[in-house]
Amino acid sequence: MTHPEAIRQVLVDDHEQYVKGEMPNDRLGSLLGDGLFLAEGDAWQRQRRAMQPAFFREQIEGYGESVVDHTRAVTDGWDDGETVAIDEVASTLTLRVLASTLLGIDAEAERETVRRAATAITQRYDTARLGSYLPEWLPTPTNRRYRRSLSDLHDLVDREVAARRSAGGQPGDLLSMLVAASDEGAIDDDTLRGNVVTFLFAGHETTALGLTYTLYLLATQPATQRRLRDRLDATLDGEPTPADLRNLPLLAAVIDESLRLYPPVYTFFREPTADVTLRGYRVPEGSVISLPQCVVHRDERWWDDPDSFNPDRWLGETDRPEYAYFPFGGGPRHCIGMRFARLELRLAVAVLLASFRFEAVTESLSRTASANAKPTEPVVLRVRKR
Ligand code: HEM
After folding, report:
1. Which of 1, 53, 125, 312 is most open to solvent, judged by the fewest CB atoms within 10 Å of its CB?
2. Which residue minimizes the CA distance to atom 43 of ligand 1?
3. What stretch or stretches form a coiled coil here (predicted)?
4. Helix-, strand-, coil-residue percentages of the chain, each rounded to 5
């Protein structure tokens, strides 16, 4: 389904007539259980309501300092002229930020448990790897690693939840909201664990890819990189804060444009629960409808010169239909982490450009369609100290 009007109809106007359906449930059901990503109807609504406060603007802005500190930490020790696999750095960074801000996990040993689980989950569901098509019960090395690391993660979550229950006062992060929801009987402990895994799955690699593609695009476009750095230098006084971001439309435009050209989530699915008509076509109940950002974001009907990286297209007025662009989905089930991801991406880029220039070593980016659209090879950049 590639017409923005039809996409809006499915995601917004008639959303009650659609479910996520077979495609995501087959692949992710045993991993995410009834967590927020896959739940439907009342069970979804209850969870979304319980977790939403962790993503309110004021709460998200409180995570800004952590993004800045973790970004500094992952670049500590970079030498002038060194080459770095930026996809790996981005992955480390987004996982640390997610674990510490949403789950309150900061200790190195615990972080390692989370990292192992996140890697195992990503590999288990990496459709570019043949093993991901084998059933979960087969004792392949990937499956064994996956089960062991998932069980370590569940233990860690159980310990953390027990500690929070006995401590009484809650820090107000996502895990607190989940514990409160479970104490009120809105979700059971399995769903609580399923949600921790849900957030590691939905929030980690997606944001890391967004950062990787943005830095790669800036590295291949030195003039845009220079212009953005000049804006940052002129606007910032010390470390960037969430409040500064309001005065940096070019930074937002660079991120928006990168998520347009290289949407980390390149397609997703819906199924109608009754026969529907979409732009004159009859679509029978239970059909799998694909909503492909990777096609719509480069459709010449809505985008001039769609394959070029041009942040300026975001800075003026436009009469483009709203759903010609939907990197975070849309309607009531839009990405709950959208504000979080956009804040993290902007702050991380601001911190990085304040200290470094980036040059592309990887000459052309080739991507593969896995759970997300990811690079087939490491994305290598050379860093120059300013
Ligand atoms: C650039 C980064 C990200 C992108 C491109 C992205 C994209 C998306 C998309 C397209 C959906 C809708 C899927 C559908 O309707 O079937 C979604 C849902 C979701 N995302 Fe994200 N996401 C990102 C970051 C995050 C982060 C940082 C988190 C958590 C902190 C997160 C958590 C979720 C969850 C839990 C859902 C399911 C929401 C629901 O069904 O109510 N995402 N995301």
Report:
1. 312
2. 335
3. none
4. 60, 10, 30
